[in-house]
Amino acid sequence: MLIKFFSFAGRLNRLSFLLRILLIQVIFIIIYLIIEIINNAPGLATVSYFTIVIHSVSNLSLITRRLHDLNVTGWVIIPLSLFKYTPPLKPLFYIAALLLVILKGTDGTNDYDIYSVNIPENNYPDIC
């Protein structure tokens, strides 16, 4: 079940993408709050770094599969990430993030149909 949050293969439609991203953000906000409350416990830095890595990989996986649904390679994440940290290009990053939620995926098959999660928008998605 959790493997779906770390797989880079296949496609992910708009609704599933949005719900999974929101679920991950809520879970990790709770984890970060717990870490803040505990604050000075031994080994906490290691737990914090591990949490950041898991959060990053799961987000990259979901974004990659959403790009696959748009028939775009996941390697597009690299320039988009650079846009985020380059002040003049930062608006392009936010536009691209918004487009991931707004644009409808390709109808039918595309280059990334392995393990497709492309379900109709009117059905309830499997978010886990």
- SS class: mainly alpha
As a whole number of angstroms, the C-alpha radius of gyration is 16 Å
Major sheet: none
**Low-confidence region ranges:** none
Helical residue percent?
Answer: 55-70%
The multimeric state of the shown protein is single chain
The chain-level mean pLDDT equals 83
Q: Secondary-structure element sequence?
A: HHHH
As a percent range, the share of strand residues is under 5%
Label this structure with key terms.
56% helix; 128 residues; mainly alpha; globular
Q: Can you walk through the features of this model?
A:
With 128 residues, the chain is mainly alpha-helical. It has one domain (2-102). The chain contains four helices and no strands. It has helices at residues 14-38, 44-69, 77-84, 90-102. Helix 3 (77-84) crosses helix 4 (90-102). The longest helix is centred in the middle third of the chain and has 26 residues, at 44-69. The protein starts with 13 loop residues before the first helix and ends in a 26-residue tail after the last helix.
What does the secondary structure layout of this molecule look like, with pairings?
Elements: H1 14-38, H2 44-69, H3 77-84, H4 90-102
Helix pairs in contact: 1-2, 3-4
A few lines on this structure:
By secondary structure, the protein is mainly α. The protein is 56% helix and 0% strand.
